[in-house]
Amino acid sequence: MTVVAEHPTIPKVPGSLPIVGHTLRMVRNPLKFASEAAALGPIARIYLGPKMAYMVSNHELLYEILVRQAKSFEKGRHFERARPLLGNGILLSSGSFHRRQRLIMNPAFTKDNIASYLDIMRSAADDIFTTWEDGQVVQMYHMFYELAVRIVIKSMFTTDMAEQDIAEVYRSMPTVISGFERRAAIPPALLDLFPTKSGKEFYAAVERLRVIGHRIVADYRARGELPKNDLMALLLNSAAEGDKLMTDKQIHDEFMTLLTAGSETAPSAMGWSCYLLGKYPEVQERIQAEVDEVFDGRPVTAKGLERLEYTRRVVKESLRLYPPVWAISRCTKENVTICGYDLAANTQVFYSIHSVQRDPGVYEDPDEFHPERWEGEKGKRLPRSAFVPFGAGSRNCIGENFAWTEIQAVLATLLQRWTINPVDNAPVPPVAMGALVPGPLPMTVTRRKK
Ligand code: HEM
């Protein structure tokens, strides 16, 4: 199916108010708003205050934006909300500077390197799972959040980061993320004009994280020999080799970027997978059987993870239904035409990965959980650009393989020993925070008898 606009007019999402446009509706229920826009067609006009923007909900348009005509787009302005913490780190930097940072950091994400993080992932998971009692209720999302913070710190930065620093990151990050969200909806300059309690808490949390970041950079500098391919070592070595652009501030910004990007998203993916496993116990049993067959009670290995085909399909379907990064934005650098639609220069373009991945024109029963849709040839027939939880093109997720390994290693380690069940059958509505999260997600853990 090719989307070429027969009528180049782009429909407007109804319900825009004078002065504020759609802003209040977007803030109140962003997911519902994005679905309404998707119902109007591949692309719709929305209003952020008086300013017009676009909302894209179709994979072919998304491919144009992220890959084929990526040169005509830059990161959207909503990324600016993260500038106070992430500075000019790899998520926010652009052009040739971004390309060189990515080249410097790539070695930390090679297949071999990621496999070498596996022990850290497994033992961090075990440290938590072995403290559970049979029948205990666990707040799954919060637990995964803490675990992901630990995993990203201990694998990306081989530092003896003190426990209190890890706890501080875990405590401060949600305040910072919700601050980012407010700043996406209301211009930061306006927010800072009227200092509020939440504004002060946001800056205090940013400052606490910044202090930790600077301390870690200083600790590394004080070390003699640096570990090979550790992310911080790659950055510091580049500076040591005379790279004038790799200042301490830049290294700090990269550290914060990796910490934020790596600890916000994976817990959402693990949380949603567990939610679905609780809802579909037969799927959970099938994963347990696969994990038992591959590992037979032994610790997970990189080679073994490659054999978890069914588990991977389940995680993939969970990432389709609940993409942790559910919407992103770009800005047109010039007038550009995508699939027949003319977009004006200097206009914000939001795209909803959530809507793209639930497009009824692509997926049969788009709102249903069907891991089998990814089986063999059937899965290969689905257009690649209609499954983009990690983005696409030159700005795709550098941590994609890390995340796949982490999610599978943690789920396999969990399900080797435990069966998880929802505390009740109440639906779990997605909360569109920085990532699309399932809320606290209380689940009962039952020790498996084998
Ligand atoms: C399920 C987990 C994850 C999801 C769904 C996810 C999703 C994404 C997406 C959609 C982007 C593209 C943003 C854009 O196009 O503007 C992105 C970028 C990025 N992600 Fe991830 N991510 C995940 C895990 C991770 C992890 C574990 C790390 C690090 C350890 C990481 C680090 C990054 C970085 C640094 C970028 C910016 C890359 C660049 O601009 O060159 N992510 N991620």
Automatic annotation (TrEMBL):
Keywords of the record: Heme, Iron, Metal-binding, Monooxygenase, Oxidoreductase
Position of the signal peptide: none
Database matches in Pfam families: p450
Chain positions recorded as heme binding sites: C397
Entry's Gene Ontology molecular function annotations: heme binding; iron ion binding; monooxygenase activity; oxidoreductase activity, acting on paired donors, with incorporation or reduction of molecular oxygen
Cofactor(s) named in the record: heme
Family, as annotated: Belongs to the cytochrome P450 family.
PANTHER family: BIFUNCTIONAL ALBAFLAVENONE MONOOXYGENASE_TERPENE SYNTHASE (PTHR24291:SF50), CYTOCHROME P450 FAMILY 4 (PTHR24291)
Protein name stated in the entry: Cytochrome P450
Organism encoding this protein: Amycolatopsis taiwanensis
